[in-house]
Amino acid sequence: MDRDEILAWVKAERLSLADFLDDLGDHEWQAASLCPGWTTHDVAAHLTLSTRSTLLGTIKGAIRARGDFNRMVADEARERAARFAPAELVAQFRETAGSARRSPGSGPLDPLADALVHGQDIARPLGRVRAMPAEPTIAALDHILASPFYGARKRFRGTRLTATDLDWSAGEGPDDARGPAADLLLLATGRAAGLAGLSGPGAERIAAAM
Question: What is the C-alpha to C-alpha distance for residues 22 and 65, in angstroms, rounded to an integer?
Fold first, then answer.
């Protein structure tokens, strides 16, 4: 894959997610997401930031959050959610869907992983199904497993992962864990909700590592 292909995937996923958000009712925008303490509105606000963040803004945010990255990200999302209504955020998301700009320190595949995972963060608590395209999902899984940022290598240590709905597997170890790619992607990014779709002896090992 090259950067143009990745950017095309990112744009398609963002536009698909914007259509999904457009279909939500007012009560769904206020519902809790899989991100602890975040509503759907907060997650949508966060998604608009990756093409709008600056290095200076990130430094200032980190100082305000006293170096706590998760707190900084949550504060920025909630501040933006308070400023913009759902329809405004969806319009902003669409406006920069094809932008190559990304958050400081992130790589080309991070915006793709962000859109795929946050789509599940929103959809699952609402009881909605959000399908994920095969090639981009495989690319996101491979990226997350290789990156030190997400902690997936430690979480999956000693486990071989196999997707039951895609031609994908990764990892080495005595225990095998099988499940839909969406569940594996959630687990790779630290979301325990992915355990529900997991089977095999490796499921217990992963649950203990979460």
Answer: 32
